[in-house]
């Protein structure tokens, strides 16, 4: 499921969301926590998909 998503697209999405949240000062602190959590989840999913490819 996640293998069909290119890594570049994920990186671009994270970059876009980060810049969008950073531009909104009201939700900057909350947004940064959400972005950090999202990046952690995506990196875990990416690692899982890499492990699946090797098996």
TrEMBL record:
- Protein name as it appears in the record: Uncharacterized protein
Q: What is the protein's species of origin?
A: Enterococcus avium
